[in-house]
Amino acid sequence: INAEYGKSAVGMASPTYETEHSTLDGCDKEDDVSPIAQDGKDEAEEQRMLSMKGDEQEAEDYMMELEQTPRGLDGVPDGVLSVDEWLTTAGGFGKFQLRQSFLVGVICYGILPAIWIMQPVFLNPKIEDSLGVSEKQLAVTSSLTFAGWALGVPIWTRFADRHGRKPIMFITCALCIVISLLSILIPAVEWYGLCRFLLGANLGGMGAVAYILMIEYLASDARGPATNIASAFFAVGTCLLTMIAYALASASYRFEIVVNVLPAVLLLCCWPIVYESPRWLCVVGREDQAEQILGIVAQINGAVMDKNLRLARSAQDPVLSPRSRAKASQEGGAVPTPKQSEDSFINVVQRIMRPSLKQSALALFFCWFSVTFVYYGLSFAAGSMPGSVYVNTVLLALVELPAYCVCYIVLELPSIARKKTQAGGFILAGVSLVFITILNFAEGPEALTTGLAMIGKLGASGAFVVVYIFAGELFPTSVRGVGLGCCNVFARIGGVLGPLAPAAGPIALVFMVFGAFAFTAGVFTMGYLSETLGKPLADVMEEDMVEVEVEFEEISDGAL
After folding, report:
1. Each residue's pLDDT tens digit, 298-339
2. Nearby residues of 458 by Cβ (< 8 Å), 6 or more positions away
3. 28 — phi, psi (to 5°)?
4. How far apart are CA 273 and CA 295, in angstroms?
5. Do the Cβ atoms of 223 and 106 come closer than 8 Å?
6. What are the residues whose beta carbons fall under 8 Å from the beta carbon of 177, sequence distance 6 or more?
7. How far is Cα 426 from Cα 393, in angstroms, rounded to an integer?
8. Torsion of CA 316, 150, 502, 131, to 10 degrees
9. DSSP secondary structure, 132-152, as one string
């Protein structure tokens, strides 16, 4: 039974296991004892198995269930599915995924961040008149939002890796509502700036965790389109905010803030119909709960599933999984035991810097910084255009939609996919922005300069979609939250510097800097990021998977 559990728990037969024990098929009949029969004869090995499970009764129930499970020729139980296989069998992108993606992706990742990030465009003029402060002071409060974002995202995403995606997403959403309402209590710009900082800290965590929860319910062929559509709703949220602001043009800024939080209040009411990520539950050793949720997925999608189907016992993360920690401590060091300090944020970041992820992680960090630096820099530079602030804001949002349409088509094409789409968006933005600098020195027409700036934002918008997909697919489940959090730290540094760049020097030089960062990010994408189209999401890092395979090989050796 230990050998059988070792093979199924890793999710596939270990190559080393197959090599070392392939001679079993050629044993004499008197020595050819099945693992299940051997388990019944070997009480010591059964106790070792119980220790690994952490809960003796749970281990006994699981072994009895496994004994009764039919087996194929390779000895692996029939009817055992991975999370990806289960989601595909349960209808792929069905009614459940549609509802989950709408609530978590469209609302929590797309519309709500757009409302809270862009509302200073309409609130600041009212606050300037009401509190008697300068435009520059209010500009600092906008940068404080991104500074808080950079601080809060790694904290909240780490909590999401430790305590689950769903509770952290709803907690941060509730805190955003509370902080927004607190900002109207004290009529002082310092208090408003502090609230914007705290709002950014929670808003960044909410958006990042919502994105993780969304993609962890999707099969590989649905992650790209779903991310693209959810990102497009940032532009829709900006248009919605513009309509609200236009309707409340004569109202006070306090009343407008209250109206802006109403969509978030409605989201909190959806707690019962939003479910935890089954991938995360498996990584932390809670497969029974994952099976229950996946059963709900199949039921809502209308899929008829065999009641004997079971979820594969996948490898758990050595730090997050209570089962792995309990087993390591009870064996007294027989298997490498992770230290308590490995659960700290710094040590988790060091895990991301392991050889299997280091190159991709560093390239992603630079790409995230570059895309936000260029995107928000262009947004705030174009914000000084003449004309109605409402019309300009809508046009700047709608110019992103063609980028989302193109990404929707090319992201799933094997010849282009994620890598070339992101690189193309960065290079398009870089080249167009450098041409603006050339036109400026040549005193070219302003209309052409504006057109090139819109093309630059178009390319940056497309790249913005793909950097999220790359971060979600490259980082394993055990460190996906922290990985995305670190990406957001670099992104928010770019978000702080981008709005300040237009006032830092000649506009021609500013566009040259924007173009240089965008073009370099495109080169890094082609040189250092691996294509992820069609690949299943990894649950643990390669280094941790090796440790788990070694552990189960030792268990199997002892049983045999």
Report:
1. 889 888 777 777 777 655 555 554 444 444 444 444 444 444
2. 399, 400, 402, 403, 428, 429
3. -65, 155
4. 14
5. no
6. 261, 264, 265, 268
7. 23
8. 150
9. T--HHHHHHHHHHHHHHHHHH
Tell me the DSSP string of 309-353: -EE--PPPPTTT-HHHHHHHHHTTTSSPPPPGGGGSHHHHHHHHT
Phi–psi pair at 335, nearest 5 degrees: -115, 145
Over residues 236-276, the pLDDT tens digits come to: 998 999 999 999 989 999 999 999 999 999 999 999 999 99
Predicted confidence at residue 313, as pLDDT, reads 62
What is the tens place of the pLDDT at every residue in 124-143?
A: 888 888 888 887 778 788 77
Distance separating alpha carbons of residues 494 and 407, to the nearest angstrom: 23
Pairing of strands 80-81, 310-311: parallel
Amino acid at 154: P
Percent of the chain with pLDDT over 70: 74
User: How many other CB atoms are found less than 10 A from the CB of residue 524?
Assistant: 20
- Residues contacting residue 437 through CB under 8 Å, at least 6 positions apart: 508, 509, 511, 512, 515
Q: Please tell me the distance from the alpha carbon of residue 104 to that of residue 100, in angstroms, as a whole number.
A: 6
Residue written as tokens 């862009």?
118
- The encoded tokens of residue 409 equal 């088509």
For residue 286, which amino acid is it? Answer: R
Among 435, 447, 441, 449, smallest CA distance to 518 is for: 435
Dist CA 22 CA 38 (whole Å):
17
Nearest to 472 by CA among 488, 494, 495, 493: 488
Structural tokens at position 111: 């519309």
15 has pLDDT over 70: no
| C-alpha separations of 460 from 107, 155, 243, 378, 515 in Å | 22, 27, 25, 9, 10
User: d(Cα 559, Cα 313) in Å, to the nearest integer?
Assistant: 19
- Whole-structure pTM over 0.85, yes or no? no
